[in-house]
Design goal:
The complex is a heterotrimer of chains A (415), B (352) and C (303). Helix content of chain A is 38%, strand content 21%. In chain A, strand 14 and strand 15 form a beta hairpin. Chain A starts with a helix and ends with a strand. Chain B is mostly helical and 352 residues long. Chain B has a two-stranded antiparallel ribbon with strand order 1-2. The chains are: A alpha/beta (415), B mainly alpha (352), C mainly alpha (303). At the A-C interface, helix 8, helix 9 and helix 10 of A face helix 1, strand 1, strand 4, helix 9 and helix 10 of C.
Chain lengths: 415, 352, 303
Amino acid sequence: MRLILATAALAALTACSGNSSGTKTNTTTTTSAVTAAPSPATAGTVVKIGIDLPLSGGDASVGISTEQGALLAIEQMQKSMPRGFTLQGVAVDDAVQGVHNPEQGAANVRSFISDNAVLAVVGPYNSNVARAQIPVTNAASMAQIGPSVVADNLTLGPEAKQLRRTNPNLITFFRVCTTDSRQGSALAQFAQSLGYKRAYIIDDNETYGLDLADRFEKDFTADGGTVLARDHLAKNTQDFKALLLKVAAAKPDVVFFGGVTSTGGGLLRKQMYGVGLGKVAYFGGDGIADLATVAGAQADGSYYTLAAPNAEKLPAAQAFVKAYRARYSSDIGPYSANAYAAAQVAANAVIRAIGKGGGVPSRADVVARVATTKIETPIGSISFDKNGDVTNPVLSLYGFKNGQSYFIRQIQLKL
Amino acid sequence: MIYVYFLVAIAIVVAAQRVGNLRAKRGLYFALGVALLCAPIFDRNDATFNVLADAGIFVILALGLNIVVGYAGLLDLGYAAFFAIGAYTYAMMASPQFNLHLPFWLLLFLAAAFAALFGIILGAPTLRLRGDYLAIVTLGFGEIVPQIFQNLTKYTGGPNGIGALDFPSFFGRSFGQNTIPYYYVVLGLIALVLLFANNLRDSRLGRAWMAIREDELAARHMGINTTAVKLAAFALGASFSGLAGVVFAAKLSLVSPDLFQFQVSVLIVSMLVLGGMGNVPGVVVGALVLVLVNNVVLPQANVIAANVGLHVDFGNYHFFIYGAILVAIMLFRPEGLLPSRQRKEELHHAAA
Amino acid sequence: MHEFLAQLVNGISLGGIYALIALGYTMVYGIIGLINFAHGDVYTLGSFFALTILTALGVSGELHGVALVVDVAIALIGAALLCGIVGVLIERLAYRRLRNAPRLAPLITAIGVSFILENIMQVWKGPSPVSFPAVVPNPSIAVAGVAIGAQQILLVGLAVVMMVGLQLFIHNTRLGRAMRATAQDRDAAQLMGININKTIMLTFLIGSALAGVAGFVSGVYYQSTWFFNGFGAGLKAFTAAVLGGIGNIGGAMLGGFLIGIIESFATWKFGGQWSNVTVFAILILVLVFRPSGLLGEAVFERA
């Protein structure tokens, strides 16, 4: 009896050989949304674009609107697919216990790689997840297009080289957003233009925040400003007054915060009022775009950049904004347009790789096509430089008034 | 398909625990071992073995903590600290960080030794504390270690951690980005750890641990050097965690402080509580069940929900699941789902 | 000097909140010897209750005059009462069965309860920090050049009043005596006709209500709350209780203020990123070298 059980178990184990379904993937067939597609009967071969984003926990609100941007692009690109091909978006979640998790991110791209139909990946949202994923996608020659990951060292410098050490000469990671250093320098320039000379820099001691603060520090100093001091926030604390007392004693014109609202950016701004710093300007990157959710009207006097153009303002984006509203009956999120563009880049590369031959292209083919991308997207025309960064990076600058964020201007950075 | 692996493994371990016949039991374990060893020949899905290797890492962690909590009865709430120490040992000594590139296999031993050393450093002054105080001290330690790694940016890369760790190699062949070699390393380590855990339990030391667990005062009067014996439990438990840390770091090729938070320690405690503290098969099953839930079921449920427009955030329920396991098991089945016969009797005897 | 004083004032205010939380920790530990790990989460729950009550009252900003007194009283008492009930429920459902179990069992359960509460709060108000209305006006006076806010004075005053009240209650009332008797020898107390279940229930009611008060106070003081606040604050309050001598009510207060001041100074001198490390290092050092804390003798002496 026992032996039978054991043999059954063995048989069951061996039975799964050859099956290549991924582990944590759920296929979002876009067909439900595109039932109006011209000829569903010819849809024989399925090719997929993987989407890896934080869909639960703290980043979910932004993660989901980003995911929807990508899925919308895939639905719309369906029309342009060559005969006999169906394009699908496969979305997975890289958050564990409510926090984006590098290990989960790496596991997710591994499951994409195990699925032969996946030809490119859109994502992730967070830079430290990207650092775990890029070595894996690089080894598999899988194109990966980041909608919002801004850390410089993903594409630039020796660290980026280490990330792609399996195929050092093959760029597989691209991004449609700009980088920390550009956000940092744009903010530094803006601070100077407002006449601010003395900055106190604080970060949340996490990957994104630390990098951003480093870049601001460098550029602000280079532009002739004085950095009074540099400090870091404690984890899991709600009291930042001790830190802010130090800041108040230094009498800055501007407090720069590298980090996100939920790791302390919101509370820091709020508590500035308690130590007499309420009138001092508060600067941050895209991480504090949702500052008002915590700080309310006390967010006034704060400024931030988004590593994306303001899609509502760009003429090219109007159609996208409308389509998004129609499809999801909600407004776009901060990175929906970027994700749309990223998915558009991926789908466009797949289509070109299928080309005249008509067969399923290899992943290497797709990577080569991504590198030579030149398309119009809701965030402007996109092409990539030799590192995988966009050649035409656009930033937008925002401020807060009456607890509402308002658009100030677009910043076009030349390389 | 990943479910099949988990469910079959769990079923076999449970079946083996239930059969009384020693030969049948051995047969079942042998079959499981052979099946696991041969699986990659038939199934070449890299992602599957990635999840299985992760599961194996947690099995090692759970078995290590089981020595401390299950055998010796010392509640360690900061076990992830030793996991971090193991992982950072590999990251600092096999990466461009300091341009040290020591071999993986050497570092396995080094990290185990390091973790054990820290176990002793933490344990020596604290082990005379009563159980609940010890738990809180270890919790404090578990909070401090990742924060120190996070703050000493110069040496540890700070919040970014250390990336691009060396690929291990086996007789000159690099593991590269494949997960199957890691899967085999994990299987090997589990076998090693199981050998240790089982032999220790039946050794003089193991009996001393259990004596302390049941009644420390009595144990001391029986001539057991309770401090030395407890330290041994701490050091051994920590060393298993160090081993797991090395494999974890090498496979991910990245370490960062956020991977070793308090939640990880509680997750491992939950595995023990669920499966049955002190019982090796129980602990293995507890680890497998929770990894399955955590790494496979919840993310899938989440995406399915998100895609049908229901934003029920299943990813948000990890805390609830651990919490419910801890409470429900302690209240209704303190011996765990798969206890050893001995433990069950002890607990029910104590209650009577 | 100015900065030193400013940090000192800040540390004392912060310590007031820790002290309020530590009181509940110390009471429960003093009487049934349980580290109620979920206590920090009851504190957070208090701020959530207060927020809900204030929202229901239609309060969204600063209050003055009668409205200030009435609405604050409703929110404060409401939060305390609801937290007290939650505390009693937790004891009844999760801890009572384990009263005679091995020592670690209720601690593990308490961690479980803590996780469940955190999860409920996360689902209730979301994973990000939530804004809390600034109900109490905060005019400040300058003492030696350091601005001290009305809220800070009220906060510390409230903590001291609660501590003294609790002390008087335990030493001068029948119920207080019952508590002390239960702490010393549960069986003997029972034989003397003390209803143990009721006494322990009362302990949880008072301890959790104090956490509720702390939750309200911190909500007003920081104008925000977050589902995960209780983890860090709870650990620090526990450290405070241990530092003062767990089971000792005056000690909890002393420990609370000390931890607040230490945290403030650590941030000032070593940088924010080291403040937690400093506090937890103190926790370890105190437990290792002086487990009975600064004030030693517990109010609730245990057999």
